[in-house]
Here is the input.
Amino acid sequence: MRFPIAPLLLAFTLTSAAPAALEKRATVQGFDISHYQGTVNFKGAYDSGARFVIIKATEGTTYIDPGFSDHYVGATNAGLIRGGYHFAQPSSSSGSTQAAYFLAHGGGWSNDGRTLPGMLDIEYNPSGATCYGLSQSAMVSWIQSFVNEYHGKTGRYPMIYSTNDWWTTCTGNSAAFHTTCPLVLARYGSSPGTIPGGWPYQTIWQNADTYTYGGDSDIFNGDLTGLKKLATG
Here is the structure.
């Protein structure tokens, strides 16, 4: 993700003779954006095959992304499934407080078939200690507070965006969310790599920090029907 306030940031089977061929899974292209992408070509993205976008809405309890409204309208007009994300600042206020702020400023969910559940972007601190000064147990509690508030107000569990390294370092590789919150895993490379936190797979893989039509490239782990299911719950 783009840091808004501070500078940056299948299995296969074996036979006795030879490995079986890997089965190619269906995927759906998407992307994520913040105001740093001043001009985003939503129609171009849709025409090229993209079907979803995740849009920066808020950070902490004092920041609303200035591009959110225009981006949301542009995504909607292009026919994209869309949703908002919140960049966490765990050292500044509680998880529930930040979830409420997110919900009040674009992070809500509606059962219209076009809105993704909100996403909690929890990752490296762009301006201080990697884990925001919280212990692993305190970080898990902070995330749980955010998740509980979001779920209580919307009936949906938020997606969680992170990296394997940050999640392992700052939550102790907690498996507290693997049965409820879809994982959005960031890893720039040819594969998602190690899946943290007990999640059996990533729901979305952020596979590159550039995308032709704006923002970062995201890959949904499934077909369009599955993506629509994620939107509708």
About this structure: The beta strands are 28-33, 52-59, 63-64, 81-87, 119-121, 159-162, 183-186, 204-208, 216-220. Residues 2-23 have pLDDT under 50 and may be disordered. The first strand starts at residue 28 and ends at 33. DSSP finds six helices and nine strands in the chain.
